[in-house]
Specification:
The protein is of the alpha/beta class and 465 residues long. Helices cover 33% and strands 20% of the residues. It is built from 14 helices and 15 strands. Helix 1 crosses helix 12 and helix 9 packs across helix 13. It is globular. The termini are far apart.
C-alpha cells in the first residue's frame, strides 16, 4: 500500500503548456501558494522546447487571464518552485530528464493533464524509469468512453501502479456544494429522517449551461452531453445525495458507500432518455455536418434499495439553455387535501429542498405559508448563500490538487464506481434515441417534459438575480 500519510515532495505536471493548465492549474496552484499550502517543487513536462523562464511568464499570463488578482510577492514564491522538462512523451530520454528533475524525492505526485490514450504509455515509461514505487498518479476524465474501454484503461494502468496509487479527478467532487451535501444530510436531524422514499416524491438534478460548444467542436462532437457530464459529474452528485452514511471513517469507507449506492442504480432505459441538439450546432467548426451528437440530455433513473424504492431521479443537462446553474432539488410529496380551508383556495405546492452547486452555492427551502401580499396562502423561500455565511470557498482544483499532494483520496473516484456508472448508461450508448432539435435559450426539447409526467414538472433552477 502507498503511504498516503506522506505529503508530496515534488509535483510533476505532464501537459503543463496545455489548455487545462491555462484555465485551471496555474491559477489553483497560485491560490494554494497564497494560502501557504504549497510546499514542494513543481516540474512541468511538455513537448515544447521552452526555458523555465518562458514557463514562468506563461504561468503569470494564465493566472492574469483567469481574472485572479496577482500579488507579486506570492507569484515570485510560486515561480521559484517551477522548473521545466521538454521532450517527446514516447522518448525514454524525456523520463531520464524527469528523473533528474525529481532528484531524491520520495513521494512524487504525477499529474497527467494529457489525453487518456497517453495515460498507459506515460505511466509505463515512469515505471521503467523507477519513478512510481511510492508515487501517486492523478489523471483527468474521461475514464473511458464506455464500460469496455473503462475496464481496458484500468487494466493497462494497473500493469504499472496499484489502484490505491491512482487518483481520478472529477472536479465536481472538489466543489463546496457536493462536499457540503454529506454534512447537510447526516449532521442535521431535521433533514436526514425526511431524506427517503416515505417523504420524497422525486429528485431532480439540473446542470444548465447558457453557453454553447463554441470553439470546442473537435472535442465535443465525439463525446456529447451524456459522456461529457452525466456519466461522471452528475452521477457523482447522485451518489453523494443518495448514498447511506459510510460505515466507518477514512477514504475507503466513503468510497465503499458510493459504490454500494451505484450498484443499486438500475440500468437506464432508452425509453426514458431524451436527446436534443441546439439549432446551429452543425455549423460549428469541428462538428460533423450530419452529426447526431446530443448537446442536451434528460433521463430518468431508479434506485433499487430500501431508501429510494419507487422514487424517480431525473437528470437533465444542456448547452444554450436560459441560465448557467447546477443544482440538486428534492421534491417532497404533496400533503393530503386540506379540508379546513375555504373553497377556492389553491392546492399547496410540494415542499422542496434545493442545493445549488455551481457556479454559486447555497441551500433553499420552499415552504407553504399564508402571505399578506397574496391575500392567502402561497410559497415562501428560506435561502442561504454559502458565500455569505462562510466566505469564499476554495476552487475545485485547489481542493483536489491539495488533497492529491497530501495523499487524501476521499474525493477521488475508485475504479469499481467508474465501472458501475458506465454500466448504468451503457444501454443509452448502445441504443440511443434520435436527437430532437431545440432553439438556443430554451429549456431543450419539449419531449423532455414527458419524462416528468406524473411527478409535476421540471423545476428551477434557482438563480439569484
Amino acid at each position: 500500500m502507498a503511504d498516503d500519510s506522506r505529503s508530496a515532495d515534488v509535483l510533476v505536471i505532464f501537459g503543463i503548456t496545455g489548455d487545462l493548465a491555462k484555465v485551471m492549474t496555474f491559477r489553483s496552484l497560485y491560490r494554494l501558494e497564497r494560502r501557504g499550502l504549497l510546499d514542494c517543487p513543481i516540474v512541468g513536462v511538455a513537448a515544447q522546447d521552452w526555458t523555465v523562464e518562458q514557463l514562468r511568464q506563461h504561468a503569470r499570463q494564465c493566472i492574469h487571464d483567469c481574472g485572479e488578482p496577482l500579488d507579486d510577492e506570492v507569484f515570485q514564491r510560486f515561480a521559484g518552485r517551477l522548473c521545466y522538462v521538454g521532450g517527446d512523451f514516447n522518448d525514454a530520454a524525456t523520463y531520464q530528464r524527469v528523473a533528474d528533475a525529481v532528484g531524491q524525492a520520495r513521494t512524487p505526485v504525477f499529474y497527467l493533464e494529457i489525453p487518456p490514450f497517453l495515460f498507459g504509455p506515460v505511466i509505463g515509461r515512469l515505471s521503467e524509469a523507477g519513478l512510481t514505487a511510492n508515487a501517486r498518479v492523478v489523471v483527468e476524465k474521461p475514464f473511458g468512453h464506455d464500460l469496455d474501454s473503462a475496464r481496458a484503461l484500468a487494466e493497462e494502468i494497473q500493469r504499472y501502479i496499484r489502484e490505491d496509487q491512482l487518483y481520478r479527478i472529477d472536479h465536481f467532487l472538489g466543489k463546496m456544494g457536493t462536499d457540503e451535501l454529506l454534512y447537510l444530510r447526516f449532521a442535521n436531524a431535521m433533514l436526514e429522517p425526511l431524506w427517503n422514499r416515505i417523504n420524497i416524491a422525486c429528485v431532480q438534478i439540473t446542470m444548465a449551461e447558457r453557453f454553447g460548444v463554441e470553439d470546442r467542436g473537435h472535442f465535443y462532437d465525439p463525446v456529447g452531453a451524456l459522456r461529457d457530464v452525466v456519466v461522471n459529474h452528475l452521477m457523482q452528485v447522485l451518489a453523494v445525495a443518495a448514498m447511506e452514511p459510510p460505515a466507518g471513517s477514512g477514504a475507503e469507507a466513503l468510497k465503499d458507500a458510493k459504490y454500494a449506492l451505484l450498484r443499486s442504480v438500475e440500468a437506464a432505459e432508452p425509453a426514458h432518455y431524451v436527446r436534443g441538439q441546439y439549432d446551429g450546432y452543425l455549423d460549428i467548426d469541428g462538428v460533423a455536418k450530419d452529426s447526431a451528437t446530443e448537446t442536451y440530455a434528460a433521463l430518468r433513473l431508479r434506485i433499487d434499495n430500501w431508501r429510494w424504492a419507487g422514487v424517480p431521479w431525473f437528470i437533465r443537462t444542456g448547452k444554450h439553455l436560459p441560465v448557467t446553474q447546477t443544482e440538486l432539488r428534492l421534491v417532497f410529496r404533496r400533503p393530503p387535501r386540506l379540508g379546513f380551508l375555504q373553497e377556492g383556495h389553491r392546492r399547496p405546492e410540494p415542499n422542496q429542498f434545493v442545493v445549488k452547486l455551481d457556479p454559486s452555492t447555497g441551500a433553499r427551502m420552499l415552504l407553504e405559508a399564508h402571505r399578506a401580499d397574496e391575500a392567502g396562502p402561497g410559497a415562501i423561500t428560506l435561502d442561504m448563500e454559502f458565500a455569505q455565511e462562510g466566505g469564499e470557498g476554495a476552487t475545485p482544483y485547489e481542493v483536489l490538487l491539495c488533497d492529491a499532494m497530501l495523499g487524501d483520496s476521499a474525493r477521488f473516484t475508485r475504479q469499481d464506481s467508474v465501472e458501475e456508472a458506465w454500466r448504468v448508461f451503457q444501454p443509452l450508448l448502445t441504443e440511443p434515441p434520435p436527437v430532437h432539435p431545440y432553439a438556443p435559450g430554451t429549456w431543450g426539447p419539449e419531449a423532455a417534459e414527458e419524462l416528468v409526467a406524473g411527478f409535476g414538472r421540471w423545476y428551477g433552477p434557482w438563480v439569484v438575480a
